[in-house]
């Protein structure tokens, strides 16, 4: 089939769930047997979100090929199973960087370089590269229609839509119908205005996805269709769902996928297999038990900072038929606090997880949380920074290296965790020093690891060689391996050359595993990551003990 393009824009407000809506539509088209590819175009000036604080932009999602991307790519992967890549996310910053590099190389042959056509052409090239790679290529434009920053993107998709023609390009606009309690009504005016805004830049949306917190009357939908010049059946209500994994099913009920196919004149009679989504939804809504995991982190007041982690824990719950409650605990309250503070927060949780983090704040608190989990034999799962803190805990309290620390925190002390200056990627050696740029220079993307035969970790994965995604600048110094192992912390997974510790575990503990990588990035509702499945299983056992 000739590739069809679906351009998704957002109106009225940000945080509409465009990414989720796009991912759900992708999943529905897949369930009908089509191949889909989703990409995100972000109008901000950062080259990628890698240098942004999680408080600003939520989690930074990392792909196999080492791109630091928008968290929507995580939704795309979780819903479609298709691994995202560097070529699935672009920002204004990257577009300008490419154009300016070409200008310096003289590639514009003396032309005056301008937003139109040079920036818009660069955006169009990013889209055109995907032609032929899937039946449906879906391009989500970040931000809200009406923002100054989105204009070049809207202009580019307008032009691209004209070039491939209306038969191959659908403009789908996501809007919000706010409820005004005093009037007791859902309001359609903001939607009308945002469609008008799109029309003013030459884009005529042919479908609307209307977000609302309550059912929308037929009359209102028809009114929107009339005022926005859209076919009635193509104004789709998109109500809040109890779980994000209900979204494909609920949007399907409202006709999202059938109307998309109808727009492209594709026969809708073909098979549709939603079994996987029904199974996931059932597991979420009819759990047989529940567990509570304490996540001791530092970006805890913005749930989006731990997006993939939250999802992976939910997936572990789905696999074990339990509901996983996440109790976020701000690690910095333990930094200075005494044991009573820790007991108050962590007593009664069924598992403790220390996730990825950067910087000093909260580090001492996390080390205390590791100690608590180790001594009380509560399941402990360390991710990236969580492994580094587990190492410092063992070094200080069990191996007698009282001043064990990381060079990320201070110059003084014994650096068990230090800046990675050299490592092997494929056949090449990558090198860094402390003066290297911060952006895009971490150990990023998928790297293989070899697991020790007979170890807990090899048992959990059911294999001795794995590949997981990384995003870190520091690593445990392998020279301390023997000393740490004497203290009971075993390095059961190493990089294939044996130089980089990847996984450690304790054998004197029911479940104590930490990895230098981010397993949460690869977990999917219908294919939960084995580490999360096993951790939640251990938490269930723990919950029966107390
Ligand atoms: N700050 C640590 C490092 O750079 C850990 C990073 C992380 O947890 N992703 O190595």
How is this structure best described in words?
The protein is of the alpha/beta class. It folds into 2 domains: 4-279, Rossmann fold, CATH 3.40.50; 288-545, 3-Layer(aba) Sandwich (Rossmann fold), CATH 3.40.50. Helix content is 36%, strand content 24%. It has 19 helices and 25 strands. It has a 9-stranded mixed sheet with strand order 13-12-14-15-25-24-23-20-21, sandwiched between helices. A 7-stranded parallel sheet has the order 5-2-6-1-7-10-11, with helices on both faces. Strands 16-17-22 form a 3-stranded mixed sheet, with helices on one face. Strand 10, helix 8 and strand 11 form a beta-alpha-beta unit. Helix 1 (18-31) packs across helix 9, helix 5 (115-128) packs across helix 6 (151-164) and helix 12 crosses helix 19 (530-545). It is globular and about 75 Å long. The mean pLDDT is 93. Glutamine is lined by residues 356-358, 384-385, 408, 471-474.
- How many DSSP H or I helices? 19
Runs in which pLDDT lies below 50 for 5 or more consecutive residues are none
How many domains? The number is 2
Overall pLDDT metric: 93
User: Bound small molecules, which ones?
Assistant: glutamine
Strand residues, percent: 15-25%
Oligomer description: single chain
Distance between the termini: 57 Å
Which CATH-level-2 architecture of the largest domain?
3-Layer(aba) Sandwich
CATH topology of the largest domain: Rossmann fold
Overall helicity: 25-40%
CATH superfamily of the largest domain: P-loop containing nucleotide triphosphate hydrolases
Strands, count:
25
Net shape: globular
User: What would you report as the Rg, rounded to the nearest angstrom?
Assistant: 25 Å
The CATH class of the largest domain is identified as Alpha Beta
Order of strands across the widest beta sheet? Answer: 13-12-14-15-25-24-23-20-21
Q: What class, by secondary structure content?
A: alpha/beta
Largest sheet: number of strands, sense, barrel closure: 9 strands, mixed
């Amino acid at each position: 089939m000739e590739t069809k393009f679906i351009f998704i824009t957002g109106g009225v407000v940000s945080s509409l769930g465009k990414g989720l809506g796009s991912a759900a539509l992708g999943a529905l088209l897949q369930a009908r047997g089509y191949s889909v590819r989703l990409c995100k175009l972000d109008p901000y000036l950062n080259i990628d979100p890698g240098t942004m604080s999680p408080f600003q932009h939520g989690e930074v999602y990392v792909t196999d090929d080492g791109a630091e991307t928008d968290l929507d790519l995580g939704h795309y992967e979780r819903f479609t199973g298709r691994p995202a890549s560097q070529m699935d996310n672009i920002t204004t910053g990257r577009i300008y960087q490419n154009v300016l590099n070409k200008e310096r190389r003289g590639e514009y042959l003396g032309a005056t370089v301008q937003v139109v056509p040079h920036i818009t052409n660069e955006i169009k090239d990013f889209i055109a590269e995907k032609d032929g790679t899937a039946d449906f290529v879906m391009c989500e434009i970040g931000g809200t229609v009406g923002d100054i920053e989105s204009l070049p993107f809207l202009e580019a998709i307008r032009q691209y839509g004209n070039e491939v023609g209306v038969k191959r390009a659908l403009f789908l606009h996501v809007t919000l119908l706010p409820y005004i309690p005093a009037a007791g009504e859902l309001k359609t005016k903001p939607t009308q205005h945002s469609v008008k805004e799109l029309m003013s830049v030459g884009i005529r949306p042919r479908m609307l996805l209307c977000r609302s917190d309550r059912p929308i009357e037929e009359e209102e939908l028809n009114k929107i269709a009339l005022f926005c010049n859209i076919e009635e059946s193509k104004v789709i209500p998109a109500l809040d769902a109890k779980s994000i994994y209900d979204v494909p099913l609920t949007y399907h009920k409202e006709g999202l996928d059938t109307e998309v196919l109808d727009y492209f004149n594709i026969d809708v009679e073909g098979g549709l297999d939603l079994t996987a989504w029904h199974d996931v939804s059932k597991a979420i809504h009819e759990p047989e038990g529940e567990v509570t995991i304490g996540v001791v982190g530092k970006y805890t007041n913005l749930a989006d900072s731990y997006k993939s982690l939250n999802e992976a824990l939910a997936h572990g719950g789905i696999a074990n038929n339990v509901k996983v409650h996440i109790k976020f605990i701000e690690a910095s309250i333990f930094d200075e606090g005494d044991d009573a503070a820790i007991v108050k927060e962590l007593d009664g949780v069924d598992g403790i997880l220390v996730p990825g983090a950067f910087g000093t704040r909260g580090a001492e608190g996390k080390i205390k949380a590791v100690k608590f989990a180790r001594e009380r034999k509560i399941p402990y799962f360390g991710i990236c920074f969580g492994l580094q803190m587990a190492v410092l805990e063992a070094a200080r309290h069990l191996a007698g290296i009282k001043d064990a620390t990381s060079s990320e925190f201070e110059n003084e002390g014994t650096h068990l965790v230090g800046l990675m200056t050299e490592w092997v990627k494929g056949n090449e050696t990558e090198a860094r020093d402390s003066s290297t740029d911060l952006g895009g220079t971490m150990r990023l993307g998928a790297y293989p690891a070899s697991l020790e035969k007979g170890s807990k970790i090899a048992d959990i994965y059911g294999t001795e060689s794995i590949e997981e995604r990384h995003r870190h600048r520091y690593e445990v110094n392998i020279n301390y391996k023997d000393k740490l192992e004497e203290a009971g912390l075993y390095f059961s997974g190493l990089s294939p050359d044996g130089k980089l510790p990847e996984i450690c575990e304790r054998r004197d503990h029911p479940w104590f595993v930490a990895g230098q990588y981010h397993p949460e990035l690869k977990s999917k509702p219908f294919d939960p990551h084995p580490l999360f499945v096993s951790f939640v299983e251990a938490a269930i056992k723990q919950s029966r003990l107390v």
